[in-house]
Design a protein that fits this description.
With about 100 residues, the chain is mainly α.
């Protein structure tokens, strides 16, 4: 029974595995400090956002957003009603 890979293919396979190992090592060693800093920034952001959500400024902003959204919904509903209604003025072709 013949081997699944020839020696040449085995050599290529080892080179590819070595490259993948080197990339993984690079990611772990060199990118780890950046990943840790990103995680710390994320935790700080969550804490700051939570503190901001407790302020009056956020509550006022949120209320304004709700009022704006309600106005948009009313406007959209009115536009839909207008589309459903029949036109009052007929087109020139229909009048003739």
């Amino acid at each position: 029974m013949e081997a699944a890979f020839s020696r040449r293919e085995d050599g290529w396979y080892i080179i590819v595995l070595r490259a993948l190992f080197d990339i993984s090592l690079f990611n772990f060693v060199f990118l780890q400090p950046y990943q840790e800093a990103a995680e710390q920034d994320k935790e700080r952001y969550i804490q700051e956002l939570s503190a901001y959500k407790q302020t009056d400024a956020y509550k006022e902003f949120n209320q304004q957003q709700l009022l704006h959204q309600e106005a948009q919904n009313k406007k959209q509903k009115a536009m839909q009603e207008m589309k459903k209604a029949k036109p009052i003025i007929e087109t020139n072709e229909e009048v003739r």
